[in-house]
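dumping these here so i dont lose them again. two proteins, back to back, each one seq then C-alpha cells. dont judge the mess
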Amino acid sequence: MPRDGNATRERILGVAERLVTDQGYSATSVDQVIAEAGSSKGAFFHHFSSKTDLAVQLVARYVAADLAHLDAGLAATAHITDPAARVVAFIRHYEDGADELMAEQSGCLYATVLAEREFTGGEINDQVAKATRVWRDAVADLLRAALATRRPDTDIDVGALADHLYTTFEGGFILCRTYADRSAMRAQLRVYRQLVEALLRI
C-alpha cells in the first residue's frame, strides 16, 4: 500500500510547531524535528526544501488555523442583530474558550517566529501581518457598528482598539507562561470585554 505523504507532512508540522513554540526556532534543529516526528531525512526533505521552508509552511498552516478561529467567532455571533451585543458576544466567545485554547498550545507561533531577526521584513513577517490585518478589519467592523449605535460622537481609534484584542491574546500567552497559570488568558480576555462594555456603556 502507498504511504500517506500528507499524513507524514502533517505529523512533521505538528511536531515542529510544538518544538518551535516551546523552545524557539533557532533552538529547534531539523534532526530534532525528524526524530520526534518518527520520520526520516528523506521524508522531511521530500516535503520541505530546508528549515526555512519548514518555517514558511508552518506559519502558513498556523495562519489558516488562526483565521478559522476568527471565522468561528464571527459565525457563532452572526445571529445577533444588535451590534453592541454582538461585539460583546464575539469577545466572550474567545473568553469562554480560553482555557481550551491554552490546553492545546503553550504559546503563539507568531511571537516566536517574529522574534527571529532573519524573518523580519520577509515572507513570514508578511504572512503574519496579513493575518493580523484580517483580524483587525473584522474586529474593527464589529466595534465600529457597535459604537455607531451607542457612542456616535466618540473619537475612539477603532483600529487601535481592534489591535488591542491581538495584543491581549499575545500578552495572555506570556502571562500564562510567566505565572504557570492557564487561566491568565481568560482573565485578560475578560478585562478586554469589560473595557469594551464600558466604552459602549453596557
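---- next one ----
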Amino acid sequence: MSGLLCLCRQGFEPELAGELTARAGTAGFYGYARTQRNDGYVVFACDQAEALDRALPWRGLIFARQKLRILAELPQLDHADRITPIIAALDGQARFGDVWVEHPDSDAGKPLAGLARSFGNALRPALRKAGLLTDKPNERYPRLHVVFIAGTHAFVAVADTRDSAPWALGIPRLKLLPEAPSRSALKLDEALLTLMTPEERQALVMPGMRAADLGAAPGGWTWVLTRQHLHVTSVDNGPLRQHVLDTGLVEHLRADGFHWKPEQPLDWMVCDMVEQPRRVAERMATWIREGWCRHTIFNLKLPMKKRWDETALCLDLFAEQAGKPLDIRAKQLYHDREEITVLATPRQR
C-alpha cells in the first residue's frame, strides 16, 4: 500500500477525498481516494507517495486534521500477536523519534481508544529492542503512527514532525475556561494555534495591536483577543458579557458588523457571523482590498452539499477580490462544525 492517510471530521470524508484528488491533480500526481462516509479518515492511493507527501503540506490541507504517509496496511492482524507483523512491516526503515498509536475520531473508531493506549505501551519497548525507536521522544526523527481502524486492521504510517499536526488524532486538547463568554472562543483559540506557527503567532499577534470583531456578541472571540492584550472594537447590536467589557481593552459598537467599517486601518479583523459563505468571502476581501485591516481570521459556514466545491469557490473568490498577494490558509478545525476557518495575511517576500 502506497499513499497518504488523512484523518478528518466524521461525515466530511467526501470533502477531504475531493480536496486530495483536486490538489494531487494540480500538483501533477495520479491517484485515487478510498473512503466511506463516517469512517473519519481517507486513504489516497498513489505510487509516488513520498513526492506527493512533500507536495501537499499539512497546513495547506483544509479538511485533513492529520496527514500521514502510509508504510503498510495490515488488514488481518492476529489478536494474539499484533506486534510481530508491525515490526516486520518496518524492515529497512530508519529509527523513529516517537510512536503514536491512534484511531479515527468516529463512532467506530472511538471504542478503539483503550486498545490504542495499551498497545502503545507494549509496542514501544519492542520497537526499541528492534532498534527502530529512540530512547526518548526526539522531534529530529520522523514519527511513527499506528492507526487502528478495527481491532485486527491497522495502518502503519510515518509523519514528518515539521509537516503534521503535533497532537494525537490531529486534535489539540483545549479547555473551555469558565470565564469564556461562549464555546466559540475555542474556535479562535484553535485557529491561532493551528493556522500559524509559534514564530508567526509571536510576530503577528502582539500586545497593543488593534482589532475588530464583527458580529461579536456575546464576546467569545473578543475575549480571546483581549487575552492576547489586543485592543478590540466589538461590533454587534447584541450585548457583550460584562466581564469582557471590564477588561478595559474593548469598545462595543452597537452596529451591523457586516456593513460597518473602521475609521482607521486596523491590525486584525475577525468574523464569525452566520451568513452565506460567498457573501462573507466578498466582504472579507473588501476589508483587505481597502486596507481596513492587515490580517484577518474568519469563518465560512458551508452548505450541506458540495462543500468542497463551495470551499474552493469561496477561497478563490476571496483571493481574487482581495487584490493583494496573500498567504491564505484554511482548516476545518476540531471545534468547527459545518464550517471552515480562514487566515489571510500579507504574503512574505
